[in-house]
């Protein structure tokens, strides 16, 4: 009887191992597919500005009688597209450092309230240009937190500049914040174009954009929210998005007051 038991246990163990192996294989296949898609995206995103740089540069070298104004315009495009490529490469490098776990957070205690005000100050001119009103309302017990101040501000700026970019002129952007137990939350709500339900789950994916042309026009790379998400997760926090097409979008960032635990930092 005892040996029957042992065989039974052995068989169970073997079955468990086999199904675990199967799962691991599926995960590898999935991540391999994602990696391929990512490389294809990177190539495409870099090729687009490169093609345009090349064709403008060719036109300039092949024609000696281009009017000065046109020449300036072409050079302007070349410069703009190179800047775009630089931005994409910088964002990719930052993401790959996160993937490799090579990003050290510089944790300090700081006033998130000051950060919220600084960031909204930084975007105020751009918002004004579009006739947007930015309101800030933080609860009284809004605490100081532990975190990487520069990176948290980068997250807030990214969300806020999306709110500005994807809201038709004359919109309202409301920043609210408060504390729930050991966590602080900041909500950035806009009255913009919104995000279709079917795109919401992919919005944090690298290079994912609802409207590529619109994002490109406003200097977007489609990497902003992916980076924001990495930063927030590394802090042991969470980032959530709700949206209704034609009504607006609300992005909520939740962070632990005490900062990331050791493993995360
Ligand atoms: P991008 O550089 O294109 O802005 P992000 O990663 O910051 O890239 O955002 C990804 C996409 O999510 C955007 O291209 C846009 O389609 C959508 N999006 C982000 N924020 C908003 C918002 N506040 N309102 C509407 N759409 C948004």
What does this structure look like?
This protein has helices spanning 2-62, 68-99, 112-129, 149-165, 197-200, 212-217, 224-234, and strands at 107-111, 133-138, 144-148, 172-180, 183-189, 238-244, 248-256. The N and C termini lie far apart (52 Å). With 265 residues, the chain is of the alpha+beta class. Helix content is 56%, strand content 18%. Helix 2 runs parallel beside helix 7. The strands form two sheets. Strands 2-4-5-7-6 form a five-stranded mixed beta sheet. The radius of gyration is 24 Å and the shape is globular. The longest helix is centred in the N-terminal third of the chain and has 61 residues, at 2-62. The model has no long low-confidence stretch (mean pLDDT 93). Residues 158, 162-163, 166, 190, 192-195, 203, 209-211, 215, 220-226, 249 line the site of adenosine-5'-diphosphate. Adenosine-5'-diphosphate (ADP) binds next to helix 4 and helix 7.
């Amino acid at each position: 009887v005892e040996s029957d038991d042992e065989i039974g246990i052995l068989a169970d163990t073997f079955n468990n191992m086999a199904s675990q192996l199967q799962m691991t294989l599926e995960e590898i296949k999935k991540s391999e597919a994602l990696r391929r898609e990512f490389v294809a995206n990177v190539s495409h995103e870099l090729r687009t500005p490169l093609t345009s740089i090349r064709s403008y540069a060719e036109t300039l070298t092949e024609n000696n009688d281009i009017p000065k104004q046109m020449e300036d315009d072409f050079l302007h495009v070349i410069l703009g597209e190179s800047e775009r490529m630089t931005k994409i490469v910088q964002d990719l490098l930052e993401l790959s450092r996160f993937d490799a776990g090579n990003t050290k957070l510089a944790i300090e205690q700081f006033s998130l309230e000051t950060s919220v005000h600084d960031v909204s100050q930084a975007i105020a001119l751009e918002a004004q240009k579009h006739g947007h009103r930015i309101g800030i309302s933080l609860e009284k017990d809004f605490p100081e937190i532990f975190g990487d101040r520069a990176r948290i501000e980068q997250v807030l700026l990214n969300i806020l500049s999306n709110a500005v970019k994807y809201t038709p002129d004359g919109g309202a952007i409301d920043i609210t914040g408060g504390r729930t137990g050991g966590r602080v939350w900041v909500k950035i709500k806009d009255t913009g174009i919104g995000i279709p339900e079917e795109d919401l789950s992919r919005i944090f994916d690298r290079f994912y954009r609802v409207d590529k042309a619109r994002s490109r026009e406003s200097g977007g790379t489609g990497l902003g929210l992916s980076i924001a998400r990495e930063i927030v997760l590394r802090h042991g926090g969470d980032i959530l998005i709700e949206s209704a097409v034609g009504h607006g979008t609300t992005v909520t960032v939740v962070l632990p007051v005490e900062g990331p635990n050791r493993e995360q930092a």
